[in-house]
Design a protein that fits this description.
The complex is a heterodimer of chains A (337) and B (349).
Chain A lengths: L1 H64 L2 E2 L9 E2 L3 H7 L13 H32 L6 H13 L2 H11 L5 H8 L11 H29 L3 H9 L4 H29 L3 H7 L10 H11 L5 H35 L1
Antiparallel strand pairs in A: 1-2
Helix pairs in contact in A: 2-12, 3-7, 3-9, 4-7, 5-10, 7-9, 7-10, 9-12, 11-12
Chain B lengths: L1 H8 L9 H27 L4 H4 L9 E3 L1 E2 L8 E8 L2 E11 L2 E6 L2 E9 L3 E3 L1 E3 L4 H9 L2 H32 L5 H10 L9 H10 L6 H5 L6 H11 L4 H9 L4 H12 L1 H17 L2 H6 L8 H9 L6 H33 L3
Antiparallel strand pairs in B: 1-8, 2-3, 3-4, 3-7, 4-5, 5-6
The chains are: A mainly alpha (337), B alpha+beta (349).
Amino acid sequence: MAALKQWAGAAVAAPLEWIARALDAPLRLWQRVAGRGGMIAFFLAPNMAIFGIFVLLPLVINVAYSTTTGGALFLSERRFVGLDQYRRLLTCDDYSDLLTCQEDQFWTALTNTGTFVVLQVSLLIAIATATALILNRSLRARGFWRAVFFFPVLLSPVVVGLIWRWILDRNGVLNAALAGMGLDPVNWLLERNWAFAAAIGVTIWAHLGFYALILLAGLQAIPRDLYEAAEMDGTPPARVFWRITLPLLMPNMLVVIVLALIRAVQVFDEAFVLTGGGPGTATLFLTQYIYEVGFASLLKNPGLASAASILMGSILIVLTLAQLGLGRWNERRGGKK
Amino acid sequence: MSRAAAFLTRRRGGAGWHWTDVVTFLWLGAGLVIIFGPALWLVLSSFKSPAQLSEFPPTLLPYEARTVEVPGYDRPLPLYIVTDEGGTRTLAEVRRVGTVAQMVDPEAPDEVQRIDIANRTPVRAVGFSWSNYLDPFLRFDFLNYTRNSVFVTGMATLITLLTNSMAAFALSKYEFRGRGAVLVLIVATLMIPLSVILVPLYSIIAGVGLVNTLWGVILPTVATPTGVFLLRQYMLTIPDELLEAARMDHASEWQIYWRIVLPLTAPALAVLAIFSVVWRWNDFLWPLIVLSRQEVYTLQVGLNAYAGELNVQWHYLLAMTVITMVPVVLVFVFLQRFITAGIAGTGLK
């Protein structure tokens, strides 16, 4: 095994070593001509070029893109329409009835995503906190248990979606279990509320371990003697949790809440593979709306998709700024004590 | 079994059970079942034949119908246990018409009996349908999808390691004007998710002619801000005296990067490599958009397309889902602690 590892390492390293050696002479020349500044530019160039072309440039183009219309892909061939796309997304005849909106699908996706974010994040945080607290007890084989909860985090969203589609199938194992207990089978993925609940449950299943891990790291950083002091004073456990554990866990808790919020706003792949947005539009979320409008539907409207994605981006920016603000506030409050 | 139970219920210092111990025990037990149960069920199901998959309620283990060679018939015949007024006996099915099956006794193959199918049950033994795994590779394009996925994962990881480490080197070992600005820019884009730039990114990929190519999938993903950030934090801990000493010996800057800094960054590079492999192997939304021709599909896109067909062939789909899961499970089993240490340390994902 060790020999194999060494051999595999050498097989990868040898050609790289050869390339690096071949590059040395021209780069030495470049260093002489352009100086240290030239070398800095050389080291930064590949990453920043890819970064600029595939992250920053699209970001800038997106703003321009959202003010154009038509089916053409390239910005230069598109017709400028100002804020029409935003108007189309946001206009409703009667805001109490979302079916009167021009883009009622967008509003469905928006309200679905809102409901999803509130329910999924609160449940996820509650379960992750409970899991972290339990993993922080003096357990036998804590590493093993931590790994158990972490396992689904590594699975691909497609695999997660398919595993659960198979379990929640009309003739799946969950319905067999229900039938075994004498209960009526449920059409999990074909009933609106159950499908929505399934999307929440499955995404929690997939991400729980990640958040529990960050919270656990925070719990383990809390000094033991605080708990010992509380025990000596005979403080009840609930009070210990609210007065010691939670305040000291706050920095990690904030990170977890904001990461969970940001990811919940973008929910797409697990839910898409699980339900395809259905039944009807019961689990249509914002990212899927952007994908459908921009790429998948027959009447593609990239300008509209781009406007929707900018609205989604602004929601994310607000959430990120809220995190920064809350973090500052929490620090200041901690400093005063 | 009782020893296992004794081991599990043993308490440190022989103390009694507190209610929190019970909660812990239940929580962990439920976690184990809910988390590994579905994956295990997937693996067990993936070995079942189509007929078995449509059974309700399902059996836990995959079974295969037992067959027998009967003289006078050129293919093996499935065996059944028949119970009717003629007693209980084992017969082989020749043919089935409606609810009546024509069956023969393997010992006396000349006499064909007509049996009501309500009176018989198939003879089965635990058996695995390996064809679920073989057919998709031989008859469909899954070999191709796997090759594409391996190429994307490997190439993207290599480029990520190279470009990110070069940038991290420049940002940690040199003082220059604008360094702070570059860092802020990189950290700020941590917050820009793919779904916000989908449409314009696609137009750029189309502009450089990379739609429906694997490079179109690879390039936008390789300049990961998390990678630069992680490597830079690690490189900051390498003492500058080492670099100065090398410069005294007339080492070029490239040699310093290649021969000194890179080998010392190996642990952080390993963590980034593991992350990158898992990320790229699992990528779905971007490949789904860039790749629309079947011959360039990655496994994830291929699986999704296969699951979206009108008549889902679950026996193939489940087997291919297991195949797609295998590399990640290997990473989990052997490298899990590096990842958890990486996340706990930096909060990156």
